[in-house]
Design a protein that fits this description.
147 residues; Aminopeptidase; 4 helices; 5 strands
Length: 147
């Protein structure tokens, strides 16, 4: 298993993995065009955004995305972890913590002091994963789409 940053050639598999994630996270509806625009923006801003991939013998089997933001609560840079997904047949093999570890290392190199993420209330595998790692939520997220 190898881990690497995504590039524009990976777009088809990025879209496939995000579609797989949104099938679990019912708060979101997959829109391939919007997702591609988002991934393109992330790939163009490689100092503040990262898309880490897990690759098994040439096949992309997992993805973790993050974007650097500023936290006034801690007075430092923070990574907003947005999309973490591992193909079902690769789950339970420790890939999620490894992907998040790559994102964490990338962030530390950029002065990041905290990782934060959202998880859909219907995403049972992710909720279980984070609970096992003593991560607790104290927040409620409200979203307003702007035209």
């Amino acid at each position: 298993m190898t881990f690497r940053l995504a590039n524009s050639d990976d777009m088809p598999v990025l879209l496939e993995l995000l579609d797989m994630l949104f099938a679990i996270e019912t708060d979101f509806t997959f829109d391939a065009e919007a997702a591609q625009r988002g991934f393109e923006l992330m790939l163009q801003d490689s100092e503040r955004s990262a898309i880490w991939l897990a690759e098994d013998e040439g096949r992309i089997v997992g993805m973790c995305t993050g974007q650097i933001t500023i936290s006034t609560a801690i007075g430092a840079r923070s990574i907003w972890v947005e999309d973490v997904i591992v193909r079902p047949e690769y789950r339970g093999q420790g890939l999620m913590p490894l992907l998040l570890g790559e994102l964490e290392k990338w962030g530390r190199e950029r002065g990041v002091k905290r990782l934060q993420n959202l998880c859909d209330l219907h995403n049972a595998p992710a909720l279980s994963f984070y609970a096992k790692r003593s991560q607790q939520t104290e927040l409620i997220c409200f979203i307003k789409l702007l035209d």
